[in-house]
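Kindly inspect the following:
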Amino acid sequence: MGEGFKNFYKRNMKSFLTCLLFGLQFLVYSQDSSLVIRNLSVPNNEKVLYDKFQNIYVTTSDPALVQFDEKGIKKSQFNEFKYGKFTLVDLNNPLSILIYYGDFGIVQILDRNLTLQSEINLRSLGYQTNTAIGLGADNNIWFYNLEKLRLIKIDPTGKIIRKSNELIGLIGKSIIKGQIWEQDNFLLARAPGFGWMLFDDFGGYIQTLPLPDDEIQYFSNDKISYRTDDQINILDLNSMRVKSYPIPGLVDPAKDVQFINGCWIERSTDSIKIYSLK
């Protein structure tokens, strides 16, 4: 294995403590039904996101991006009607939020108050068809370009900083789609029909991960969270082991459910319920 993969093992203690804390939170929920519910009324909502500051974000079909604090109090809202619906919202850096409009090849960067800071047109830079995108740890932009069949990283001026080799030999006819996640000098990207792939921060392929061919909920501190049926699963990249936690009885597993910052979030079309300990 390459040096990139060996770096996983340098963070074992941090990883162990993070996993222990996460497991204790699930244990409390499984044994204590003393939960409080906060209801957020957000008509036509489509997705619930969150950042490391415990803010909650909701995308709507308007389209709009609505920001709430950890208590469910609305803080700000961003509306954009020129480019239509959001293709993707990346909150990996809550101080620099990326919004992508795939129909136009437009990338917008917002600050933490959802104020527009900059806009980049990938098509005007020569990248016509881009099927995956994400903000790098250095606030530069990763995307997968279908013409070049590569992961490419550019700065705000369009200058290429890094790029992968052509990936057709690896993924065949599959196409990398959705969000590109960068955490701890690693990239995570998904090609439906092929799977989730781990790359180093230069775009070098490391391995394909044992994850379902579906969307994940988050990637942070060497942990990947995803849902299967009535449970949330956590893959530890250090040990490559998966721990599974059942969804509590008070939360409706038939709905879109996430476990975020110590709270269970249940999403339906016009409202969002947040369950937390009293």
